[in-house]
Amino acid sequence: MPSSLPSLDSSISSYIGDKEREREGGGMGGVTSSMAAKLAFFPPSPPSYELVREPVTGLTTINRFPHRENVEVMRLPTRRGTEIVAVYIRNPMAASTLLYSHGNAADLGQMYELFIELSIHLRVNLMGYDYSGYGQSSGKPTEQNTYSDIEAVYKCLIENYGAKEENIVLYGQSVGSGPTLNLAARLPYLRSVVLHSPILSGLRVMYPVKRTYWFDIYKNIDKIPLVNCPVLIIHGTADDVVDCSHGKQLWELCKEKYEPLWLTGGKHCDLELFPEYIKHLKKFISTVERSPSSKHIWRRSTDQFEPPRRSSDCFEASRKSTDYWEKPRPSVDKCRSIHNKSNGKEKNKFKFSFESMENSRRSVDCFERPKRNTELMEKARKSVDRLDRIWAG
């Protein structure tokens, strides 16, 4: 432990005394909101995208991407008076709908391509959204606003798209694990939850405190025991932003444990680059879809795991495949298919660039201010590096 930590508790104790008196005077909400803003929220500025309304059709689209027939972009009102932007991606093969809460320092313009790929490979409908104050959503980012944001998206799925609670998978990445678990704890019939590099709480990212303070934000450590559905946790063992111990402790507290994925060597912003990521995620979705009424078949304790498979082996290094990289190319405009021969048959495998996303999400949930988005966008435009994404079909 750093030598300064012993004085931390005394400083916090003094701080608590001051804030308890402030709370008695009615100032708690403002303090909590202020702490949340300082610790957690760094929306890209300026936003990475704009919304365009086509005059003939009246459709709303994201200016960086061509319109797709299976994608809808919309604005949704929240109970706290803000208006957020959401995108719904329909997959005709879907049996589940995934509600994705992204991490920090990102917006829909940077997440859009990943959402498309996840919808294709997982065979799910997918709805992603920008928190209040992110992208083209109105208002300011606060903890309470993110809770009302995800509620508005969930309500839209139920009322506008006919989704059922038991067919919905909540996916929260890093800071997005906060609104995800807050909602999941209140929905007893959810299909499942995925937590990607999750946090125990906002304060615990910075300091190894042993108790929950009232002024902390995103108290996931207290909410995850209330989640009644299967939970998959994915975390990189080399995460230097949110330590892997956060994911492991949350997994220990789950009621319905699913085999976790600890990606050896994985950092905070690169887990999608590991082949094990999509394989394990597909396996999880398939499992919960096959067994909607058998709540306990995927529940395993630490001593009941079958021998680890290579796709989720936490005892052997999870390597990034060198097959995913190729020489720089002049275009970074869009994804394309590549063809590889396997057993005499051709398989279409998808590739797409993570260059712009990786640059813009480099400090996702780093709790320090990222580079300005204009610099990130310029880097993405000038870069000719391509990352071949070959996810097994």
UniProtKB/TrEMBL annotation:
InterPro entries: AB_hydrolase_fold, FSH-like_dom, Hydrolase_4. Residues 1-29 are annotated as: Disordered. It comes from the Eukaryota. It holds the Pfam family Hydrolase_4. Residues 219-268 form the Serine hydrolase domain. Gene3D superfamilies: alpha/beta hydrolase (3.40.50.1820). PANTHER family: ALPHA/BETA HYDROLASE DOMAIN-CONTAINING PROTEIN, PROTEIN ABHD13. This is Uncharacterized protein.
